[in-house]
Amino acid sequence: MKSVLVLQHTEAEFLGLIEDHLESRNIGFRYVRPFANRGWVPPKAEDQDALILLGAGPWGTLSEPVLPSLKRELKLTRQFLESGRPVIGFGAGAQILALAAGGGVEVNDLCFRVGSARRATDSALNGFLPDSFPEIVYMRDRPVPPPSATVLAENADGHAAIFQIGANSLGFHGHPGIKSAMIEDCVMEFEDSPDNVAEGLAALRAVQPECAAALSQIMIGVVQITGLMRPSHDEISQAAS
Asked: Which range marks the domain in which residue 185 is found?
């Protein structure tokens, strides 16, 4: 059974609809919450097969307020990348992935946007990425993938909606498994929130079925790209002995 470490940055934002997709494939996951544990982040990437970096609500990685655990998370993310283990980032998590891989971040005000993105290449996510799909963004700042990254999808603004780092790591500008209740909880958790929350929530509820349908295809490609259903080297060795 593969094991995924999930770094959660706010009480409100979690894997959402993605949890069911991991559980149905017998992929285990464990949440670590730096915000509830004095900023503690695992110092080494030793026992986990993959890393997922969630969004961070109003926290930024370049503009204030900066995510308090950012430096420790960058160090851990680099360890995963250097060891060849997959990293998946959503929102602020994609910013951390971009930074760790040699890319950057652009300053952007906290925003809540319900838009759409289009596939940039037919082979994106091994061909399982839908031609178009909803993109739900609740985030401060914006990831800038490194030149070596492959852009798999673009949004209406021409920015990378999904990008791939190396053979098995992925950054998502939005959160493909988001639920409207997560946004509501985030607004209640923090004083800082965008001005268009009510309109955004109405738009999100309207496209929630499309999000779920697109996620079913996206997760097939994500699991294939990351290798989360392939046996690890240790599992192969144990089976052979």
From this structure: 3-240
